[in-house]
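Tokens in:
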């Protein structure tokens, strides 16, 4: 199935069928044309983002996948306005009775009580401190964070309790919180990964339309490193036939900016994300579409996606091994990943309740 062209500033222009809906509806093109004549054309081309403030029951998720390097994670937002067409989190919007397409980019659920719920979680009597990852699914520094400051409120909790935290983002908005990150870094309580997909601005604009520019991400790496905050680069996703020729350049430029380590993830296309990606290729790279799809199939045992945790991050086969070798050589040449990262400290952790008691005794 082919989906409609993306609106300007959006990763996609349509809402594919929700896989949980038993019935599929198809619109009559004549009806769409008639509707278009009487509705605001500007709205159709530039759909507005709806921010839905949500009071969540819990904020910390537990991970049981052996290929994920953390047990606990927090996602302050569900949905992401960055609009990255490849985002493996898109299908999660279907659990909200929405679509993984335009809905994912325009209906953003904002967990406004996240800090309160984090304090409750950390105050559990049986909780044993270990690093919590912020942003493993959707970006914690997407545009709505500028006003809502939910991620900043979470970092405040981490500072107050001396709790270790990692963050991954493709936004330079993280520099707003440099004061909190600096305080955490001083006690070896934080690591940051900046996600970089391409150095080509034109490709960035159609692949991840509302994310920060490559130049802004390099500047973020440079600033974080200068401020003493451990920072690395995540080349994610590596898209065979689209951005894989850039692997060496991305690693080199990020290392020159100050990245201390690097990782990569092969393109993942769960559920209907496969069709969304095929449509994107047809729109932007019709002559390269079949080659790109075949290269991905070569990395996935003939399929466009495999969920096996042993191979989903890096793929299998000759082309996947070639990507791994190229990445490893580029990292080594730039002095990255030469030694294992030291773990963040957990011995400084002070539960929220204990912090309050100390404050009372100091009166």
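Residues out:
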């Amino acid at each position: 199935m082919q989906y409609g062209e993306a609106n300007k500033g959006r990763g996609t222009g349509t809402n594919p069928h929700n896989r949980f809906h038993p019935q599929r509806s198809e619109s009559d093109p004549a009806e769409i044309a008639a509707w278009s004549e009487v509705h605001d054309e500007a709205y159709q081309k530039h759909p507005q983002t709806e921010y839905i403030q949500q009071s969540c029951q819990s904020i910390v998720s537990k991970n049981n996948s052996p290929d994920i390097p953390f047990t606990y994670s927090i996602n302050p937002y569900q949905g992401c306005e960055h609009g990255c067409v490849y985002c493996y989190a898109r299908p999660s919007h279907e659990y909200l009775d929405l679509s993984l397409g335009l809905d994912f980019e325009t209906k953003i659920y904002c967990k406004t009580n996240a800090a309160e719920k984090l304090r409750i979680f950390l105050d559990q009597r049986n909780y044993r401190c270990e690093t919590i990852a912020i942003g493993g699914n959707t970006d914690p520094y997407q545009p709505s964070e500028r006003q809502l400051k939910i991620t900043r409120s979470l970092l405040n909790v981490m500072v107050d309790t001396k709790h270790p935290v990692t963050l991954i983002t493709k936004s330079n908005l993280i520099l707003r919180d440099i004061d909190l990150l600096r305080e955490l870094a001083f006690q070896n309580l934080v690591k940051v990964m900046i996600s970089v997909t391409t150095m080509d601005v034109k490709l960035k604009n159609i692949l991840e339309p509302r994310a920060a520019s490559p130049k802004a991400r390099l500047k973020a790496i440079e600033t974080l490193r200068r401020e003493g905050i451990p920072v690395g680069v995540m080349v994610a996703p590596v898209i065979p036939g689209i951005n894989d020729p850039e692997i060496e350049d991305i690693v080199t430029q990020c290392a020159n900016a100050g990245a201390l380590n690097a990782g990569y993830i092969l393109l993942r296309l769960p559920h209907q994300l496969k069709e969304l990606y095929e449509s994107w290729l047809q729109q932007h790279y019709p002559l390269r579409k079949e080659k790109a799809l075949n290269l991905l199939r070569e990395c996935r045992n003939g399929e466009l996606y495999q969920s096996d945790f042993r191979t989903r991050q890096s793929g299998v086969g000759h082309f996947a091994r070639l990507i791994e070798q190229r990445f490893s050589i580029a990292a080594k040449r730039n002095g990255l990943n030469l030694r294992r990262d030291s773990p963040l400290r957990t011995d400084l952790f002070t539960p929220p309740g204990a912090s309050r008691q100390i404050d009372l005794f100091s009166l």
